[in-house]
Design goal:
alpha+beta; globular
């Protein structure tokens, strides 16, 4: 396994490493589905995350399950993007406006359209409103962050 150090940029709020978020150890999108009571029409996992009955469902069942989940996600997008920086061993979090996160893997530069680096008042307010709604202490004003991820 190799180690990479990636450069990244996003617009959002940078949090201290000990900040607790409402999703805890879960992925944000999993928490978001639970928070909004998404229940797939077909269950394939039990409460422990194992396949029901101990066997992987057919390819068709799996494809239908994930297609339904993707369709729900598209209709109910998470209003923030969690961006990790520092390292996978000691991750720190930026909550970013969705779509503003860009990264460049070591050895592969990425061009950035400077005119794309704009944020509307509505995008900024949506980020702040999300934090207020879920009682996440806002650590200052949102801004552009240039960071790295080592891992």
């Amino acid at each position: 396994m190799s180690i990479s150090s990636d450069g990244q940029i996003c617009y959002g709020l940078s949090f201290d490493e000990d900040t607790e978020f409402p999703w805890g150890e879960q992925e944000v999108d999993e928490w978001w589905r639970e928070e909004h009571n998404f229940v797939p029409s077909t269950k394939i996992y039990d409460a422990e995350g194992q396949y029901i009955g101990g066997e992987r469902p057919s390819k068709e069942v799996m494809e239908a399950y994930y297609a339904e989940q993707r369709a729900w996600d598209a209709a109910h997008p998470v209003p923030v993007e969690r961006v990790l920086h520092c390292s996978y061993d000691y991750p720190m979090v930026i909550l970013a406006v969705p779509g503003t996160f860009k990264n460049a893997s070591r050895g592969y530069p990425e061009a950035i359209d400077q005119f794309a680096l704009t944020i509307t008042d509505a995008q900024r307010e949506a980020l702040l409103s999300f934090c207020r709604e879920y009682e996440i202490e806002i650590p200052g004003e949102p801004k552009w962050w240039l960071s790295s991820m080592y891992g």
